[in-house]
UniProtKB/TrEMBL annotation:
It comes from the Bacteria. Transmembrane segments: none annotated. CDD domains: TerD_like. Residues 234-245 have a biased composition (Low complexity). Belongs to the CAPAB/TerDEXZ family. Pfam families: TerD (PF02342). Residues 180-196 have a biased composition (Acidic residues). Residues 177-196, 234-285 are annotated as: Disordered. Residues 6-174 form the TerD domain. This is Stress protein. The lineage of its organism: Bacteria, Bacillati, Actinomycetota, Actinomycetes, Nakamurellales. Residues 247-256 have a biased composition (Basic and acidic residues).
Amino acid sequence: MGDETVLVKGQNVPLDSDLSSLRLSVRWGCGSNPVDVDLVALILGPDRRVRTDADMIFYNHTATADGSVVHAGKVTADAGGSDDVLVDLTAVDADVHSLTVAASTDGAAFGEVDHLEWWVAGERAEPVARFPVSGLTSERALVLGEVYRRDGHWRLRAVGQGWAGGLAGLATDYGVTVDGSDEPGELDGAGESELEAELEADLEADREAEAEAVAEVVEPGGVLGDDAAIATATTTEPAGPVETAEPVDHPEKPEPVDPTGSTGPSAPSTPTPPQPRKVRIAADKPVTLPPIKLAEDGTWQTARLFSISGIGGADEQEKRATSALLWTMAAVRPLGRSLTARAGAPAGALETFLEVGFSLGELRVIPDGVIRIARGQKVWTALVEVKTGDGLLGREQVEKYLRLAKRRKYDAVITISNQVSTDPDVHPVDLPAHATNAVSLFHISWSEVMHEIRMLLAHHRFTDPVSLWILSELSRYLEHPRSGAMPFTDMGPSWVSVRESIADGTLRPGDQKAIPIVNAWQKLARQLCLGLTARLGVPVKQVVPRRWQTDPGLRLDEGTHRLADHGVLASTLRVPDAAGPITVSADLRTSRVTVSIEIGAPQENSLSRRVTWLTRQLKDAPDDLLVEARFAPRAETTCERLVDVRSRPQLLLPGKDWEPSSFVVSRSQPMGSKRSGARGSFVTSVNEAVDGFYADVVERVRPWAPPAPPLPESAGEPAPPT
């Protein structure tokens, strides 16, 4: 399919044939009234019904027996969240026609959700398609879409059909026997037969395609089906091909079959067939850790699961950290899944091992750990190499593990250290390209491990108190300085000399000492993304120009030129559902850190009211914020303090014909000068600037959206005769 496709209701698109697995997600956002949403996957046979009750994958039944469909877990926050299911397309049974992806709420109506979309990604989280769902009111469950087979190939279909009867009603309508629910669900906006007929059209098209290969083209001005009409009305540039099947007569629902063969009412003597196993819909309540209450005073320290006492040297530190992490990955499934998914591992039963010895020719090779994951008849294996403290990964050692993994036909080598890569796909050890031809190589910094743990503790819905306690203890251990797991805090040995050269005006783009500073900034930007992701529960990513993606060296070259010419380090971050991108810049000439966000201006009402639209949202924000108005395509801008714009919005408006296209809200504060450390360091000052600006500005501002078009005054009157 290429780039991400934005689907509209009723649209069908093919999946790339080289996709072997999918991540299917529901993502939602809500305002002051939090709503919890759950994802459900229904595995359907040719009759569009589940084959057994075990074909319903959701929070109380998290995986199929063969591991082909696995509930990957949920991330929630006050403002929304996401829930994911992983599908191994290569392992789905041959008699499965489709997977229906649905969502349900905790009892609230979907009309209370501000934003809802079905999101489809590939095995490495690369975006494939998304389907924004709108127009929902009282529904408590809905079908988001389908992944289905046609002519041996997988396809996507956006559905967007709601059920007012909730998850139990939806499940019952797809053939699942629900515990405690004997009533069928209630479709919203259409009868069940109407939706089934719509879905059956695709199935009938499959049958017809086997008998005859006919391509039908609808010329401009021709008659389009309902779904095609929706696509045409809602988008002027369709992101993908919209296919509509010819309408077919949907067969009547089969009546229940009497096992005696009688067509009339069952006789009293007819034996009652055994009751099928029922699915329990009620969700387990999330748990929290109980507070410590029995200590006499605050000096009492609670006992630790992972002790920090007795760590005598680097070897002991490394072994303890490795053992604690690998053991917890096996004991707490969400952590094991989230970390191994980065290495392309499948979801399945995970086991970990320490210091397993192997023979490599005449050498005895002992990696720090081994991870094995069983899924169906396949076993995925990765060798693990760990460094703590100031320990650095060595090229010779990594190459040795790659050769060992290749010889034993293992899948990956995973390295863990305090080295932070400038990019998720860049390994900190420079290796020849052929070294990873047969075996994948992945690096995870201890910063990433700690951020992943914090995100799970903050946003994952744990129902087992033991798992929550174990993960909390691992977090407590890794946060202790003796553990050897350290966040990125050091700008490097050339930091002072680069600052002095910038102050003297002697730094040039070709100076080698500038390169490590630009690389360190990229590591810091990545840490900012990881930190926000862990606390917000949504993926925060760095925005980079497309030319940098195709030529990583260009990113470093342009960064050194900007630093030498302007004395500035800068990055842009994108937070899902934020009002605009967030830009972070450090000016080493003025020793100031600036954080800003660009917000699209309203395109209606008077010019002054467009300004007050922004200031009303920032009524409790600090007075020292700056507000800049931009007037594209004009190059000129205006800028004033927020405290002044609140009382006199016209300060930002040079004239009556100057319509603002966007506003940039920014705040500048002193920059830390120290190379590293907790107080007064450059890294600490940037982290604090971003956190403060996000709390004061970003989370307060909503993007502008035009109101729905009003109906004409005569909408309810009959049209005059012609």
